[in-house]
């Protein structure tokens, strides 16, 4: 599974993307974030406040309780600020 | 006709307007967003999610076409580094009459603010900071839910 990070999430994690294989019990985006947080201090800092995180699964915006089973690409980022 | 552009190039409003006017409708409405220089902002940088951004804007334009009888919808968003006064976003709609064109144009810019993966980072006094999302933007987007 390819994980992408954007904006300050990317800066705190320290990489723009990484390839991971989460354990089978990681069912939704929130659980994936909890699991990713254990990878480094940077990940932990980026994911400290889940209320400030948004996500996309296979390039479609989703809520954090959306399933990740079978996803090829998951993106984690702050609330968007375009326009 | 839907036209979506996400690019680091400056936005040519005259060219976009001319294209909308060739779509054969009686009314064209446009919105242009400029980089604000409030609070001493020196530069603004736009990060986006390549692929997902274009897809989100395309979906947004399609939803506007489903809701109003549009002959055309154009969304142009700039990414990369910009300075105050430069154009950051252009939205244009063409329809037979003004009401649909004006409403669809307002819908597109309101929804773009909450539904498309862009992030602004501004530099003030040489220090860069990520711009926080505004609660007012979410409120503006929800007015189209009914």
From TrEMBL, chain A:
Cleavable signal peptide: none
Organism from which the protein derives: Sphingomonas ginsenosidimutans
Cross-referenced CDD domains: Ubl_MoaD (cd00754)
Family matches, as InterPro entries: Beta-grasp_dom_sf, Mopterin_synth/thiamin_S_b, ThiS/MoaD-like
Gene transcribed to yield this protein: moaD
SUPFAM superfamilies per UniProt: MoaD/ThiS
Protein name as it appears in the record: Molybdopterin converting factor subunit 1
Domain of life: Bacteria
From TrEMBL, chain B:
Keyword NAD applies: no
Recorded superkingdom: Bacteria
A molecular function GO annotation: molybdopterin synthase activity
Entry keyword set: Molybdenum cofactor biosynthesis
GO terms of biological process kind: Mo-molybdopterin cofactor biosynthetic process
Keyword check for Hydrolase: no
SUPFAM superfamilies the record matches: Molybdopterin synthase subunit MoaE
Reaction(s) catalysed by this chain's protein: 2 [molybdopterin-synthase sulfur-carrier protein]-C-terminal-Gly-aminoethanethioate + cyclic pyranopterin phosphate + H2O = molybdopterin + 2 [molybdopterin-synthase sulfur-carrier protein]-C-terminal Gly-Gly + 2 H(+)
Pathway as given in its UniProt record: Cofactor biosynthesis; molybdopterin biosynthesis
Function, in words: Converts molybdopterin precursor Z into molybdopterin. This requires the incorporation of two sulfur atoms into precursor Z to generate a dithiolene group. The sulfur is provided by MoaD.
Subunit structure: Heterotetramer of 2 MoaD subunits and 2 MoaE subunits. Also stable as homodimer. The enzyme changes between these two forms during catalysis.
Record PANTHER family: MOLYBDOPTERIN SYNTHASE RELATED
Family, per entry: Belongs to the MoaE family.
Name assigned to this protein: Molybdopterin synthase catalytic subunit
Organism this protein belongs to: Sphingomonas ginsenosidimutans
